[in-house]
Recover the amino acids of this structure.
């Protein structure tokens, strides 16, 4: 029995590792996967699992970009790299909208927007946004072509787009922040890298919030559930490494329109699936 649950957790980890970094909505894919693959765990654990599995993806970013993320020098203890500290300050600024608005609305969002129809709508909307913005930016030279050139105002604007993803699942956190960055003239590689770095505090904070809520609810966790969580995170970590490498290589030669079209098709399929499901049970 536990072997089957671990296989399921690995499948969830694969989907999370791929879709967390490609701008196609990890939440949308996990909701769809939940329709066909059911973990034999408590409802409280499943709600926590879908978010905390992101910790594996975060560790992939920390490992791959450790030299850019670590602010201290290796030669003299106490000295730091100014550019890295400034970058972390920009990341902190980008997190402000989600902290001030997104976190207080977490329960509201969970109650009203974490459903297939809402996810389908946001998949399509931001898929269209990718196509429109990439067409608009065609043959334009980005004004921000390095992380050092990204201003605090730019970071705050990108953070506002991250807020949209925090409230409306299916938007895709990476998708929303990349769309925001492209809108204000940030190059694709810089938009992707800043999105990766911004994910560290954003996703770690979301995971911590879910863990605290889970513990506060007084729900006990079984050994099977612990194993499911561990293997899900481990798989998410391994797959994320390959997904990040793929995306960084892909955007050197291509734009994001392919992801936009994918989102539109997936959103349409998801929307039709849930409409048919609601009709079949007599809800509409």
């Amino acid at each position: 029995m536990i072997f089957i649950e671990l296989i399921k957790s690995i499948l969830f980890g694969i989907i999370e590792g791929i879709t967390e970094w490609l701008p196609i909505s990890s939440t949308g894919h996990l909701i769809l996967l939940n329709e066909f693959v059911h973990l034999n765990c408590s409802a409280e654990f499943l709600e926590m699992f879908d978010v905390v599995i992101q910790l594996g993806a975060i560790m992939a970013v920390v490992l791959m970009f450790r030299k850019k993320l670590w602010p201290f020098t290796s030669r003299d203890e106490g000295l730091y790299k100014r550019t890295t500290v400034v970058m972390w300050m920009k990341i902190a600024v980008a997190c402000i909208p989600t902290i001030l608005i997104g976190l207080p609305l977490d329960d509201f969002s969970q109650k009203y927007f974490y459903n297939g129809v809402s996810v389908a709508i946001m998949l399509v909307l931001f898929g269209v946004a990718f196509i429109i913005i990439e067409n608009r930016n065609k043959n334009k030279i980005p004004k921000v072509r390095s992380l050092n050139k990204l201003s605090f105002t730019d970071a705050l604007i990108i953070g506002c787009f991250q807020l949209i993803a925090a409230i409306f699942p299916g938007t895709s956190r990476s998708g929303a922040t990349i769309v925001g960055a492209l809108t204000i003239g940030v190059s694709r590689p810089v938009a992707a890298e800043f999105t990766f770095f911004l994910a560290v505090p954003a996703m770690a904070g979301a995971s911590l919030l879910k863990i605290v809520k889970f513990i506060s609810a007084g729900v006990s966790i079984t050994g099977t559930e612990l194993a499911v969580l561990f293997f899900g995170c481990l798989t998410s970590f391994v797959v994320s490494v390959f997904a990040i490498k793929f995306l960084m290589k892909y955007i050197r030669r291509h734009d994001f329109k392919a992801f936009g079209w994918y989102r539109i098709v997936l959103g349409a399929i998801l929307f039709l699936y849930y409409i048919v499901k609601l009709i079949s049970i007599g809800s509409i």
About this structure: The two ends are 37 Å apart (CA to CA).
